[in-house]
Amino acid sequence: MSEVRFAIPKGSLESATFKLLENSWTKVNRKDRTYRVYLDDPKIIVKMLRPQEIPTLVSEGLYDVGITGKDWVGETNSDVEPILDLEYGKIRLVIAFPDKYRYKNLDEMVADYAKKKKVLRISSEYLITASKFIKNLKSYKKAFGNKDPLIVTPWVRLGNNKNVQIHLSFGATEAKPPEDVDAIMDVTETGTTLKQNKLKIVDEVLTSTAHLIVNKKSLKDPTKREKIFDIVTLMRGAVQGRKYLHIYLNVRENNLKKLLVQMPSLKKPTVSPLSENGWYGINTVVRKDEFYKLIPKLRKIAQGLVVHEPRQILELEEIKRDEEN
pLDDT (tens digit, 9 = 90+) per residue, 144-167? Predict the structure, then answer.
């Protein structure tokens, strides 16, 4: 079986990614001040990179799989397969401008600036996403047709509409308005930083989470496909494991039927007779968000509750069907 090259993100997604790796594999090692990570599977070669780079590198085949925000997949126009939502690193990409402005949204701002023949400047790290969003606005289409907004970076200028400009931001985007730009497209989780800088959110462009992405050629390569699905299986199991609790409890025989009726579970609970007559042990998995509802019921009819957080829940039959498809 061929080696599989795996790119993982450095930066804001780093901590959550390592936690997921540690729940997916039994051994995860990283040497200080290096970008190499070692799993207990020597066939998986892991390296840390910036999440902005990973979609392109996976698309080009330099890596077979990678973890990055789905926002960067769209921004880089990378031809990859987002195969698994890892359900962390959730962000919102929004449009914001000074709260003293009277416009309700960017569409109104574009219309007014076009009418007054004023140059509109927007700052963002997401140049392609911003350009696509702006071009789809009704007011932009009406005023400028199919012209591309002018993308401005220190190295290159793209687009032919100087009246609407998107300036590359190198960080602290929220500090740019109103002196340097009129509006921003930026990432936020709570909106607190924007409010502190006297900005208001007027449009939501997209929401994004970390995804496991795969090179499409690697996915079709029989020498790599099996190992890729090993990775998918283990990581999907870790994602599922975060949502459930593994519980053990004891119940008297006369309360057994009542308990089984009331207890939700991933599959059917395992019921085993105890060494003491008239008692049974229950072994099952329940959703975390339902566990609190069980406590009042269990207090009345059960004893000896033990709770574990599973590292993984591997739905092997489901993965096998996915492979066959």
Answer: 999 999 999 999 999 999 999 999
